Model the fold of this input.
Amino acid sequence: MSNPFRHDLSTLAPAARAWLARKPAHYIDGAWQASSSTLPVIDPSSGEQVGEIAAGGANEVDAAVAAANAALKSPEWAAIGPFARERLIMRLVQLIEENAAVLAQIETVDNGMPSWFAFGPTIMGSADVYRYYAGWPTKIAGETMVVEGPPGAGDFRGFTQRSPVGVVGAIVPWNVPFLMAAWKLAPALAAGCTVVLKPAEDTSLSALMLASLVEQAGFPKGVFNVVTGRGPEAGEALVNHPGVAKISFTGSTATGRRIGEIAGRNLKKHTLELGGKSPVLLFDDARLDDAVPGAASSIFMNAGQICVAGSRLYVQGGIYDEVVERLHAHAASLSLGAGLSPDVFMGPLVSAAQKARVTGFLERAGAAAGCEVLRGAPVDEDGGYFVSPAIVTGAAHDAEISRSEVFGPVLSVYRFDDEDEALALANDSDYGLAATIWSGDISRVMRVSEALECGKVLVNNGGFPYPGLPEGGRKSSGHGKDLGREALDSCLQTKTVLIRM
Ligand code: NAD
Done:
């Protein structure tokens, strides 16, 4: 019998196997550029190498940025109309949907995410992001106004023009690779920009598949380029490059801080979508049958490797014991294993480093006085990068486990007495990405959602990103927005024209 904690790669579609076997290459100026410098592709369910990607640096970034700047001014891209841009993006949507099963398999083997999450929220969710932005090129417009000039100076009109900001350098993390790339690429294409994407070194395969689909969709060469490689080399070369007008970054707060410093020095536009430590407030007037599975899936989905994961759960005193008991039973009932199986809810973490990081947090939390770590369904500790779901109770609010982003299946639970205390605890964090309220009292929901210091509030649901609604944080969770009109605006620049009649 096959091991349920190991992917059986013989079950992959032939096209997915072909992607694993491909020679390492960047995608620059509409062509595959082979590289002798490589990084391994590791299957997180086994820890074994299943492929190779190219390890690029300043030279490859230079070539990609040059191609993107040439494409930005080329008649094939700069001179086409908004309907043509819409048609190209919609053709890409169609190709993503046609190739969704293979894309999902690649994402599962590369990242470890389970099939259901890879196919639905990740690949089909990305298709919706492109579909949403396909509607924008025909709606980009400036404003015209009557201007009152200085006395006697004449009659004036003023208007604004909107144009693409230029080459966008997109840098994305490994947790939901194809979707994060969509959040960057879709608004940039809709705005008429060109893009150089640097995917995360642990999960670059789906970005390379995306390049192939962009080519098949008929986008002109140089509009989309992918340089794979390590962050400090390929990523930093992109941030430093004078030919890049805007950096759109998603990743950790530490890397975001560094990118912000470099971009600030170069006066380069940048948006930073960073880490989170998002609170979930569970009041005693909530429906527990919805709230407990909702709170659990918020942290255990994709093994907690979700930026908006609800990692701090605050429970009103009277229902605290019941909620902890139910959560523990829920965590114990989750099906864990290698994600190619359709029955698996939670797969392994992405890498050995991430597993070591998460288990380190749990060991240090477990050693603290008064702190208890309850474990969920057991995992095969020897194979791959699995970590059993964990519920931490009794942690001090200033403890490491309460303040640091773990980015794993670890939920810390705290008790509160009243609304004021719940709010104070929720806002007592360096981060400000998202928050969730579970309550049946609409007035409380309004009060609390207004007072929460974060970029997104979910009410009585576990949440999902909707392409029309902006995502992005406050405080150490960064600035600027992905998705919605705001992401489109961040890829456009405005020029004012003042005319004397
Ligand atoms: P990371 O910061 O280590 O890496 C992110 C990307 O930056 C990778 O592509 C990496 O190669 C690159 N990079 C690393 N060092 C660089 C440098 N010096 N210059 C330029 N690029 C560099 O983050 P990660 O561990 O891959 O991702 C997990 C983090 O992403 C978590 O903190 C998570 O919360 C965050 N995240 C945030 C959002 C959001 O919308 N706010 C969404 C998803 C993930």
In short: The chain has a mean pLDDT of 97. The first strand starts at residue 25 and ends at 28.
